[in-house]
Amino acid sequence: MAGTLKTVSGKSKINLSNKKIAIVVAEWNEDVTEALFDGAHQALHALGVKKSNIIRVNVPGSFELPLAAQWMAEKKDIDGVICIGCVIQGDTPHFDYICQAVAYGVMKLNLKINKPIIFGVLTTLNKKQALERAGGKLGNKGEEAAVTVVKMLEIH
Ligand code: RBF
């Protein structure tokens, strides 16, 4: 059994109508990252975040996610950031370098900025695995990222 799915069930316990969330989206494997973005955007709205308070920024690839997330998180009015990406294993070791750099960069940013910066990055062996997690049979990890940022705002 894969990990527990965290799906949207009703509104958040806190008032999210004045919360502003940035979603940073990597353009590599955009069929996957667009589906993840849609999942995150719809879930944030369903939980109570106003559409006008969801700010989207695109970056070329996942490696660029931490810096763009930092730029967004540094803005006073941004309460949290969701990083969306999809890194698919190829024939060379780039996969390991990119995944490690992004995961470490995002984690470091959480502690530096003191705001929730969510790791919504798929790291898969192939496109099929990615699509299964981007609205396919294993749910939508973008939606889970939205639930996660709201849970972090609820406990802060
Ligand atoms: N970015 C992704 O978001 N997903 C990928 O699967 C991906 N594969 C890459 C493979 C190679 C060989 C290279 C050089 C880059 C890849 N990138 C990928 C882009 C990377 O995140 C970044 O945008 C570029 O390396 C420029 O800094």
Structure description:
The structure is a single chain. The protein has a four-stranded parallel β-sheet, with helices on both faces. A two-stranded antiparallel sheet has the order 5-6. It has helices at 30-47, 65-73, 94-113, 127-132, 141-155, and strands spanning 21-26, 54-59, 80-88, 117-124, 134-136, 139-140. The protein is of the alpha/beta class and 156 residues long. Helix 2 (65-73) runs parallel beside helix 3 (94-113). Strand 1 (21-26), helix 1 (30-47) and strand 2 (54-59) form a beta-alpha-beta unit. It has one domain (21-155): Rossmann fold (3-Layer(aba) Sandwich).
Task: Provide the low-confidence segments as ranges.
Answer: none
Structurally, how many domains make up the residues? 1
List cofactors, ions and other ligands.
Answer: riboflavin
Q: In this structure, how is the largest beta sheet organized?
A: 4 strands, parallel
What is the chain-wise order of helices and strands? EHEHEHEHEEH
Mean pLDDT score: 95
| Gross geometry | globular
Rg to the nearest angstrom? 15 Å
The CATH topology is given as Rossmann fold
Question: Which second-level CATH architecture applies?
Answer: 3-Layer(aba) Sandwich
Helix content: 40-55%
Q: What topology, given as strand order, has the largest sheet?
A: 2-1-3-4
CATH-wise, what's the superfamily?
Answer: Lumazine/riboflavin synthase
Number of strands: 6
